[in-house]
Design a protein that fits this description.
It is built from 3 helices and 31 strands. By secondary structure, it is mainly β.
C-alpha cells in the first residue's frame, strides 16, 4: 500500500538538513518571504507506536546552513528532526503543495512546494530547503544508429560507440561555457574528441523519451547526435497545474495538480482530495502504478472529476514536453492529461 503523505522533491537524487535549530540566532535573516496564513488546524496527536517507530522513507534536506531529516509516519504524518529535536507533524490545509504542522505547535511547520520546501521552527523561518545530493552526478547521453553512450563523471569521460564495440576513456577535461553551451575537448587515443552539450529539449529517436539536453559528439571527422541529461529533471521543479483531462476542461474553479519529487514520489490535489503515489521512470516509459488519497467528500461533480483524473493517472505510460512547455501525459489508449507550471 502506498503512503498517504505528499512531500515535495525536493530534488534530482538529480532531492531530492542537521545543527540545532532551536536558537533564534541560528536563523538566516534572509529567509524567503512566507505566505500569510491563519494558524492551521492540526489533526490528532501521534500514537504511542508512532512515537517509538522509526520513520520510513527519510529524506535529508538543507535549509541554508541547517540540515534536517523528514520521514513518513503512520496516519499521514511526518517526523521532522532538526538537530537534537524531533517533531511529529500532521497535514494542514495549504493553498498549494503539501504543508504539515507540529502537533500542539502550529508555529512549527514544514511546507513542501515541488522542488523546494519552507521550514519554520517555533515561528522562526529558515532559508529555503533543498535536497542533499549523496554523490556527484554523472552526465549521460545516448544516440542511435549506430548506438553510442557517453558518460562524463568527475574523473573520467567515457564514450562507447558502435553498440559498445569501441570504448574510449580520457580524463574529464574542464569544460568551456559559451552562451549556455558546455563543450568538453580532449585528445584520446590520438583522436580529437569534442562533446557539445546544449540546454535544449531533445527527444530520443527510438524511445520517444524527452531529455533536457541536445548532445553532439565529434570524434575527428565523425559526428554523433543524441540526447543527454536525466529526463526526470523535466518533471521536477515547480508544481504542475492540470488544464485538461483528455482534452476536456476542468470544472471551475477546481484545482488539480501534479508534483514529481526526486525520490520517486508524485503528489498533489486531485479536485477534492490530496493524493500521493510512486512514479516509475525508465528509459522508455513513465508509469504511476497506484495512488492513495485522503478521504474528504465534495460535490458529486468534483468527485467524478477526481475519479477521472486518478484513473487516467494510474494508466499513464509516457510523457512529452510540448513546444509551449506543457507537460502531456499519455495512456496507451491515446488519452491525455495536460498540465503547465504554476
Amino acid at each position: 500500500m502506498l503512503r498517504t503523505f505528499a512531500m515535495g522533491v525536493l530534488i534530482v537524487g538529480s532531492f531530492s538538513i542537521l545543527a540545532g535549530c532551536g536558537a533564534a540566532d541560528s536563523v538566516d535573516s534572509a529567509a524567503p518571504e512566507r505566505e500569510a496564513t491563519p494558524p492551521p488546524a492540526i489533526q490528532g496527536e501521534p500514537t504511542d507506536l508512532e512515537r517509538i517507530a522509526p520513520p520510513a522513507f527519510e529524506t535529508t534536506l538543507r535549509c541554508g546552513a541547517q540540515e534536517i531529516t523528514v520521514g513518513h509516519t503512520e496516519a499521514e504524518g511526518l517526523r521532522l528532526t532538526v538537530g537534537d529535536e524531533t517533531f511529529d507533524l500532521r497535514p494542514v490545509e495549504a493553498a498549494s503543495g503539501a504543508k504539515y504542522a507540529a502537533v500542539n505547535d502550529p508555529s512549527t511547520t514544514f511546507w513542501s512546494k515541488g522542488d523546494r520546501a519552507l521550514l519554520e521552527v517555533r515561528g522562526q523561518a529558515y532559508p529555503e530547503c533543498t535536497t542533499v545530493a549523496d554523490t556527484a552526478p554523472v552526465f549521460r547521453a545516448t544516440g542511435n544508429e549506430p548506438g553510442w553512450l557517453l558518460e562524463i563523471g568527475d574523473q573520467d569521460l567515457t564514450l562507447l560507440k558502435n553498440y559498445g564495440e569501441t570504448r574510449l576513456v580520457a580524463p574529464t577535461p574542464v569544460p568551456t561555457t559559451t552562451n549556455g553551451v558546455n563543450q568538453y575537448a580532449v585528445d584520446v587515443d590520438g583522436q580529437n574528441l569534442t562533446v557539445t552539450i546544449t540546454a535544449r529539449l531533445c527527444v530520443d529517436t527510438m524511445s520517444g523519451m524527452p531529455h533536457p539536453h541536445t548532445v553532439t559528439v565529434s570524434l575527428d571527422d565523425e559526428n554523433l547526435e543524441g540526447c543527454g541529461g536525466d529526463p526526470a529533471t523535466l518533471l521536477h521543479g515547480a508544481e504542475w497545474v492540470v488544464g485538461d483531462l483528455n482534452r476536456g476542461a476542468l470544472i471551475e474553479p477546481s484545482r488539480v495538480t501534479l508534483n514529481f519529487a526526486a525520490d520517486g514520489r508524485v503528489f498533489g490535489h486531485a479536485s477534492c482530495n490530496n493524493y500521493t503515489g510512486d512514479y516509475v521512470l525508465t528509459g522508455e516509459s513513465l508509469t504511476i502504478p497506484q495512488t492513495v488519497t485522503t478521504r474528504m467528500a465534495c460535490e458529486p461533480e468534483l468527485m467524478a472529476q477526481e475519479s477521472r483524473f486518478l484513473e487516467l493517472l494510474e494508466n499513464i505510460q509516457r510523457f512529452e514536453i510540448g513546444a509551449d512547455g506543457a507537460l502531456i501525459l499519455h495512456t496507451d489508449d491515446l488519452r491525455t492529461i495536460t498540465a503547465r507550471r504554476s
